[in-house]
Amino acid sequence: MNYQWYPGHMTRAKRQMQEDIRLIDLVIELVDARIPQSSRNPDIDELGKNKYRLILMNKADLADEKRTGEWSRFFREQGCFTVSLDARSRAGMKKITDQIMEACREKLERDKKRGIKNRPVRAMVVGIPNVGKSTFINSYAGKACAKTGNRPGVTKGKQWIRLNKEVELLDTPGILWPKFEDQAVGMRLAQIGSIRDEILNADELSLELIGFLQREYPGILAERYGLSEDAKDSDLLSEIAVRRGCIGRGGEPDYSKAAALVIDDFRSGKLGRITLEVPARKDGAD
Ligand code: G4P
User: Fold this and answer.
1) From the alpha carbon of 175, which atom of ligand 1 is closest?
2) 201-268: which CATH architecture?
3) What digits encode the pLDDT tens for the residues 100-139?
4) Whole-prediction pTM value?
5) 244-266: pLDDT as tens digits
6) How far, in Å, from the CA of 130 to the mean position of ligand 1?
7) What b-and-e string marks burial along 248-281, b requiring 16 or more CB atoms within 10 Å of the CB?
8) For ligand 1, is residue 134 a contact (CB within 6 Å)?
C-alpha cells in the first residue's frame, strides 16, 4: 500500500472531509467485512453526525457470513443502515439504492411536504484506504451515469455523479485513516494486507492468526494443510512447512516461508471465509 500518513496530511484530509460532508445528506461508509471495527475510523461518527448513515460491509465474499450478519445487527442498533457487499460484482447494487432511500426517508418525506420534487439525495463515499471505495464507485456508478458539472451554490471543482433520478454521488471518496497506533488494530489491518508487511513482523502476524484460527475456526488449518489431528500450536507452523515443502538449505523447516504462506492463503480466501472480529456484546465484553 502506498499511503503515507503524516499529521499534516491527516489534518488536511479531515478538513476536506468536513467541507464535503456539509454538501451531502448521506455518508456511505465502506468497511472491510473481515475486520468491521478495525477498518473504521471512529472520527466518522463525529464527522457524520446529523447525516444519514449507510455502512457497506465490503469484501463480504471473504468474510464469515454469520459474523457479517452479527455486525449488520450491531451497526443497525447504532442507527446505521447496512448492506453486505462484494464491490467487484454488480450484484446487490439494487439493494444499495433501496437502503439509501430507506435511510433518507425522513428527508424525502420532508421535501415532499414542502413541495420539493426531484431533488436527489446527495451522498459521499468514505473509508480507510484499500476497503474498495474506487471499486465500489466504479461498479455502482457503472457506465450509464454522466458526471454533472459544477453548479451554482456547489463548491467549485466538485464533481457529482448522477446515478439515477434519486441519487447523486460525490465522485471523489473521502479517505479516512485507520487507527493503526492501536496495536491490535494495526495487527488486523496487516493480516488482511492493508498495511505494508515490512512495518510488522510477518512471523508474528502469522502466529497470531494461527492462534486465532485454532480458537475460532478449529479444523480449518488441519483441513487446508493436511495436518495431523494432535498437532500442537507450537509445532503447527513446522508441520505446515514440511507439508508444503517450505524447507531451508540445511533441510530444516523454513518457518518464515510457511508463515507467509498461511497469511497469503488467508488474504486470498483459500482458508475459507473468515472474520477476525466479533461485535462487542451489550455488556461491554469482547
Ligand atoms: P480503495 O479505493 O478503497 O483504496 O480500494 P480499491 O477500490 O482500490 O480496492 C482495493 C483492492 O480490493 C483491489 O484489489 C480491489 O480489487 C479489491 N476489492 C474491492 N472490493 C472487493 C470485494 O468486494 N471483494 C474482494 N475480494 N476484493 C475487493 P487489488 O489487489 O489492489 O487490485 P486488483 O487485484 O483488483 O487489480
Assistant:
1) 3
2) Orthogonal Bundle (1.10)
3) 999 999 999 999 999 988 789 999 999 999 999 999 999 8
4) 0.91
5) 999 998 999 999 999 999 999 99
6) 6
7) eeeeebbbbbbbbbbbebbeeeebebbbbbebee
8) yes
